[in-house]
Write a structure and sequence with these properties.
Structural class: alpha+beta
Shape: elongated
Order of helices and strands: EEEHHHHE
Distance between the termini: 39 Å
Number of helices: 4
Number of domains: 1
Strand content: 25-35%
Length: about 130
């Protein structure tokens, strides 16, 4: 790592994330492309593991963004089942956010991080 963990901030706030490619979900009888974006905040929970797994701050941002976008794609696919409109998905945003945060928390733990907050700012039909 280029910087020791003592030189790094212990928390990283408002890291942006977004699905680079639209997620294909079934809404009623139609297959729809959906994109999502938001922010997250993480904190270093295990400095030694963090130092082993994350090479620098830019790498941290990329790794966390990749984790969130992958988990968001999974979450959208799971939570869209039985819904027929984007408005129904948007109405369930609170539940989707809770599911997403749980999935992300498990994944970032392997980087020596903990999730302080994950927010979904927009879900859009493409």
């Amino acid at each position: 790592m280029n910087q020791t963990h003592r030189e790094l901030p212990q928390e990283f706030d408002r890291l942006p994330w977004g699905t680079l490619m639209p997620v294909q979900v079934r809404l009623g009888s139609e297959i729809v492309s959906i994109r999502a974006r938001g922010t997250c905040s993480v904190a270093i929970s295990d400095p030694q593991l963090f130092e082993e797994r994350v090479s620098d701050v830019d790498s941290l941002r990329a790794q966390v963004c990749n984790i969130i976008t992958l988990r968001m794609a999974e979450t959208l696919a799971e939570t869209s089942a039985g819904k027929s409109t984007l408005a129904e998905i948007e109405a369930a945003l609170g539940d989707i956010q809770v599911i997403l945060q749980s999935k992300v928390e498990q994944a970032v733990g392997s980087l020596g991080l903990t999730i302080k907050q994950t927010s979904i700012q927009a879900i859009e039909k493409r």
